Fold this protein.
Amino acid sequence: MKRVMIFGTFDIVHDGHRHLLHEAASMGEEVIIVVSRDEHVLELKGKLPLNVLEERMETISCESEVTEVIPSDEELGTYGVIEVYKPDIVLLGYDQDELRASLLTWMDEQELTGISVTHASAYEPEMFNTTILAEQMEEEGLSLV
């Protein structure tokens, strides 16, 4: 049974995320979502997510392809979740180049082999991007939470 792991913030779940989940489900029988902690999002993106960790985990868990949802490791840049869940594949969003580099460096340091780290294809990134969607919602006066 192949296990696929996805890392992300999942602040506003949209069709781009669903495309990622669909690709993950086509690669394996289990899809494990690792949701970034609020403080990590702040450190990496310079702003807090719109929704707190627990709400983001609950929202993404409702997607049919998802087997399990877990919070990221407490310390940024450590990937103990990989050691615990032992995925066969880590599927990254099309734009997660820095995460890929960090993961590959960590895996090399840990001498972990046999885990494929790959990017999903982009799905209409000019439309389905959390930052763009949040800005559009704000302009239209819609609630973000």
Summary: The chain has six helices and five strands. The two ends are 36 Å apart (CA to CA). The mean pLDDT is 89.
